[in-house]
Sequence to fold (69 residues):
Amino acid sequence: MSGLLRRTLRAARIVVADRSIPRPIRWIGALALLPIPGPFDEAVLLALAPVLLLFFRRQMRDAWQAAQR
Fold:
């Protein structure tokens, strides 16, 4: 399980740094990666995930594959 969690975090960092994704979306993703206590960061991720999956599927797939290495 810890391997999956590490890969997910690496993929999230790669997506946040991807210049082909508009800056406001990357900022929201970076905000979700901050260690903020409470449900705030999870709520931000739940709101951001559909946007990324619908409009930036290729970048998400590339980040997931790059995080495997």
Q: What stands out?
A: The chain has four helices and no strands. The CA atoms of residues 16 and 23 lie 9 Å apart. The longest helix spans residues 2-17. The mean pLDDT is 89.
